[in-house]
Amino acid sequence: MNIPSTTKQPFVAGEVALVGAGPGDPDLLTLQAFRMISQGDVIIYDRLVSKEIMALVPQDAELVYVGKKQAEHRVPQDGINQLLVDHAKSGKRVVRLKGGDPFVFGRGGEEAQFLLKNDVACHIVPGMTAASACTSYAGIPLTHRNISRSCTFITGHVQEDGELDIPWNALSDEKQTVVFYMGVKTLPTIIEQLEKAGRSDQTPAALIRKGTRPDQEVYKGTLHSLNDLVKIHDIKPPTLIVIGEVVNVFDEKQLTNIGYVSTSTQ
Ligand SMILES: C[S@@+](CC[C@H](N)C(=O)[O-])C[C@H]1O[C@@H](n2cnc3c(N)ncnc32)[C@H](O)[C@@H]1O
Question: CATH number, domain at 174?
């Protein structure tokens, strides 16, 4: 493959590249991401990086998985930060490969801060974030004239002892699309609070699981039926929750440019 030349800074030994791998389909990897991955001596990667993308890493690169340990505990963030610094200081070109975009719910900012604090140069390579790519593959436009004038990406993840700290009233506009990342566990609270804030329980809503991957699943319903859809289809992460009228703009079977055929239920 001929990759266009670039005037960007070269990736040299002793540096780290925080690279966004997108949500799974290797076709969505940017040329810049591919170029950086191809030069990596060490690839430190997450559980959300698809096996098709891992197949693109250099055969002689050292692979370090920091998704989950045997005991199902992830490598703590402090440990990942230190790993990046240690590998860079040993003179390697280190690729920190992350699902989606490193700066969208990916803790890429924290990693970059730690690297800079430790005098390690750091490249940031954006990736396609799940909300953008997965909705496209599910035939859902994030905005649509007269139907949705804004779009909010929001995390449904709570800290261990915390509550969901979300300004619910700011999500009440019926012409706003809301996309929750990491929201499966807290979905009952999300639904309750959105309804309290004024969203109709008949607001169209969708679950997109393993978006852009060959086994992508898409389930459409309403705010009211989302909990049932999760139970019926045994929905687990990685899943996006999309709420808003845009969910019903298309029947995705009408669109021919979607990567994969997916399951869909009203
Ligand atoms: C820790 S966040 C990482 C987000 C990532 N940095 C991005 O920009 O897409 C993980 C969450 O992203 C969403 N996600 C990532 N990849 C996905 C996919 N292929 N399909 C559906 N949701 C996905 C899910 O909500 C998942 O729980």
Answer: 3.30.950.10
Claim: this prediction has a pTM higher than 0.85: yes
Do 233 and 171 belong together in one domain?
Answer: yes
DSSP three-state, residue 148: strand
- Does residue 142 share a domain with residue 62? no
Half-sphere exposure for 56 (CA within 13 Å, toward CB): 24
Instruction: Out of 27, 46, 48, 263, give the residue to mutate to test ligand 1, the one with the largest number of ligand atoms within 8 Å of its CB.
Output: 48
pLDDT in tens, 155-214: 999 876 678 889 999 999 999 999 999 999 999 999 999 999 999 999 999 999 999 999
Say how many Å lie between the CA of residue 91 and the centre of ligand 1: 31
> Ligand 1: which atom is nearest the Cα of residue 127?
8
Both tokens assigned to 155: 């995390």
